[in-house]
Specification:
Layout lengths: L26 H10 L4 H10 L6 H4 L4 H4 L7 E5 L6 E5 L2 H11 L23 H14 L9 H13 L5 H8 L4 H7 L3 H8 L5
Length: 203
């Protein structure tokens, strides 16, 4: 008896094309997800740090308990980027600090060298693919339509920095480590939106 045929994923992009992962644009959806995670301190911590920094999921997974356990609001935190091998600095706001402290308080192995985002089953750090599935599940439960994954977290940070705070594109470009401003606008899925706004001006 031969091996069963592998089912083709209908959502898999065609050869030569890609499916763009989206940011979480609606602040109400962010609140819905946080509400769902209120009794899941590890997941709430991951979500909160993810949408409040420009770090990749792989970079978040490299954080150890001892790296952040002592940090307070406004303290400088540097994390090595996976792609460039350079260190990128950020500062944590109150929401991030609260989420970290709440999680460390119940962390199963809060020794300094332990992964901050530990898998309950393996005792090692979560994987990027696991985070992708978690984000998809959170967004689906919140009733959101679209394609979401691990990159949605850092994209959400950049999207709202631009849309809510009107952050300058060169600053976001630097935060993401992008080569061009166009790359940053396309990455955040807001290039077409900002161009459309230009036509709203009545002369």
């Amino acid at each position: 008896m031969g091996m069963p045929k592998r089912q083709k994923n209908p959502n898999h992009p065609k050869k030569g094309s890609t499916i763009k992962v989206e940011p979480i644009r609606d602040l109400r959806d962010i609140k819905r997800i946080k509400k769902r995670l209120v009794d899941m301190p590890r997941d709430l911590c991951l979500f909160t740090i993810g949408i409040n920094t420009a770090y990749r999921a792989s970079e978040l997974l490299s954080i150890r308990v001892g790296d952040v356990a002592h940090l307070g609001v406004g303290d400088r935190f540097e994390l090595k980027q996976q792609k460039t091998k350079k260190y990128r600095a950020t500062t944590f706001n109150q929401l991030v600090v609260n989420a970290i402290q709440s999680w460390i308080a119940v962390h199963p192995d809060p020794r300094p060298q332990s992964p901050l985002f530990v898998s309950r089953k393996r005792g090692s750090a979560l994987t990027v693919s696991t985070i992708t599935n978690m984000v998809k599940d959170w967004c689906d439960t919140a009733g959101m339509k679209g394609n979401f994954g691990s990159h949605s977290l850092r994209k959400t940070w950049g999207y709202h920095q631009r849309v809510q705070n009107r952050a300058a594109v060169p600053l976001l470009m630097e935060a993401f480590g992008h080569a061009t401003q166009q790359q940053t606008l396309e990455y955040l899925c807001i290039q077409s939106e900002e161009i459309q706004e230009l036509y709203a001006l009545e002369l």
